[in-house]
């Protein structure tokens, strides 16, 4: 049996990188045979969001975003992480078989501390909580963006260590799955670096109207004339267009930029096409997003139903792990 599982932190408004790198694969995977668990990682978000009202609002926004973008809570068990406290119980068991050295090697922890973030213990042990999320549902496939691969590998290690220590096949080994192309696994931001909330170079998926125009206007360009032939690989706007356009149209834009001359498009043309393609892709979902958000009680009850189903599975796995190590 294939069991898909992934989570996303409610630490702000989901951006284009979150969509193409994570959310879209989550939504697409529901078409595949198997069980599906997707959740809003609010325990994880506490490492950065420390304001109760913001956290609650972010959770609802994230749920509305997923539903608007096509996630079907009938087919997928969709829930809030903290509604399944068994995950916190399993976290403790895993932390007892995890060496400090493993956590010290985590890229995300090293990156964050290098940026000057003063780490809490929670930030340090974050990969254990994530491993517990994965192992608590006997997940076999974890669709994630590139930056999460190491965390899934750590979950593999922790499952192996626990099984080795307690002499039984308690936890199932998970595998990660990346988006099908490199372009989707690492979406650039306004400045050409990886798009990330923490770099302030991100674009909210449901941005629209004047704000969208203004945001697209901030995508890094240079002062070369449209007629000057250019290497398409150095034109950031084309990387953005690549997310939206069919290959043939994209190739056409690339060729015209490469050739230059009187009829070559300027950056302004690329921006206009990007806004148009963005609207085509996201406008209907944006409308649904507003509708979902207008009914918070319905969102809460859908999440509660998902949590009930998630807890059922997590209790079975928790009991299996407790018995294996002598806590029952
Ligand atoms: P951020 O870096 O903005 O804080 P998160 O760490 O919350 O984003 O990432 C949530 C999900 O989105 C993860 O699965 C991650 O791999 C994916 N993701 C984040 N940024 C990008 C990006 N620029 N390109 C592709 N995927 C991304
Ligand atoms: N750490 C992930 C992120 O920042 C979110 C997450 C938490 C997750 N638990 C998970 C992803 C389990 C996949 C599986 O994006």
Describe this structure in words.
With 328 residues, this protein is mainly alpha-helical. It folds into 2 domains: 3-183 and 296-325, HUPs (Rossmann fold), CATH 3.40.50; 209-289, Tyrosyl-Transfer RNA Synthetase (Orthogonal Bundle), CATH 1.10.240.10. Helix content is 56%, strand content 7%. The protein has helices at 16-29, 42-45, 52-68, 86-95, 100-104, 107-114, 121-135, 149-166, 182-185, 209-217, 236-244, 247-259, 267-293, 296-325, and strands at 3-8, 35-40, 77-80, 141-143, 175-177. The strands form 2 sheets. It has a 3-stranded parallel sheet with strand order 1-2-3. Strands 4-5 form a two-stranded parallel ribbon. α4 (86-95) crosses α7 (121-135), α7 crosses α8 (149-166) and α11 (236-244) packs across α13. The longest helix is centred in the last third of the chain and has 30 residues, at 296-325. Bound molecules: adenosine-5'-diphosphate and tryptophan (TRP). Adenosine-5'-diphosphate binds at residues 8-9, 11, 17-18, 21-22, 144-145, 147-148, 185-187, 194-198.
For the CA atoms, what is the radius of gyration?
A: 22 Å
Can you list the ligands bound to this structure? adenosine-5'-diphosphate, tryptophan
The 3D shape can be described as elongated
User: Which CATH top level class of the largest domain fits?
Assistant: Alpha Beta
Question: What is the fold's blueprint, element by element?
Answer:
Layout: E1 3-8, H1 16-29, E2 35-40, H2 42-45, H3 52-68, E3 77-80, H4 86-95, H5 100-104, H6 107-114, H7 121-135, E4 141-143, H8 149-166, E5 175-177, H9 182-185, H10 209-217, H11 236-244, H12 247-259, H13 267-293, H14 296-325
Parallel strand pairs: 1-2, 2-3, 4-5
Helix pairs in contact: 3-13, 4-7, 4-14, 7-8, 11-13
The protein binds adenosine-5'-diphosphate and tryptophan.
């Amino acid at each position: 049996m294939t069991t898909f599982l992934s989570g996303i932190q409610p630490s702000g408004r989901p951006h284009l990188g979150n969509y193409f790198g994570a959310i879209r694969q989550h939504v697409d995977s529901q078409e595949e045979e198997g069980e599906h668990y997707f959740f809003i990682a609010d325990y994880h978000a506490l490492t950065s969001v420390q304001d109760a009202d913001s956290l609650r609002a972010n959770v609802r926004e994230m749920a509305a975003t997923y539903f608007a973008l096509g996630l079907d809570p009938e087919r997928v068990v969709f829930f809030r992480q903290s509604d399944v406290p068994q995950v916190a119980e399993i976290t403790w068991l895993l932390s007892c078989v995890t060496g400090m050295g493993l956590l010290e090697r985590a890229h995300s922890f090293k990156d964050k501390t290098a940026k000057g973030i003063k780490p809490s213990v929670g930030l340090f042990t974050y990969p254990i909580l994530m491993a517990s999320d994965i192992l608590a549902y006997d997940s076999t496939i974890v669709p994630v963006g590139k930056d999460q691969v190491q965390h899934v590998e750590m979950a593999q290690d922790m499952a192996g260590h626990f099984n080795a220590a307690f002499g039984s096949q308690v936890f199932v080994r998970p595998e990660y799955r990346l988006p099908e192309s490199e372009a989707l696994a690492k979406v650039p931001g306004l400045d050409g670096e990886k798009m990330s909330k923490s770099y302030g170079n991100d674009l909210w998926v449901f941005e629209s109207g004047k704000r969208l125009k203004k945001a697209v206007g901030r995508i890094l360009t240079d002062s070369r004339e449209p007629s000057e032939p250019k290497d398409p690989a150095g034109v950031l706007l084309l990387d953005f267009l690549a997310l939206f356009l069919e290959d043939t149209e994209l190739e056409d834009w690339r060729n015209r930029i490469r050739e230059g001359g009187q009829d070559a498009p300027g950056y302004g043309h690329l921006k206009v096409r990007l806004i148009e393609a963005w609207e085509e892709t996201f406008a209907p979902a944006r409308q649904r997003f507003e509708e979902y958000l207008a009914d918070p009680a319905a969102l809460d009850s859908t999440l509660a139903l998902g949590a009930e189903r998630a807890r059922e599975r997590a209790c079975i796995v928790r009991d299996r792990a407790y018995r294996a190590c002598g806590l029952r």
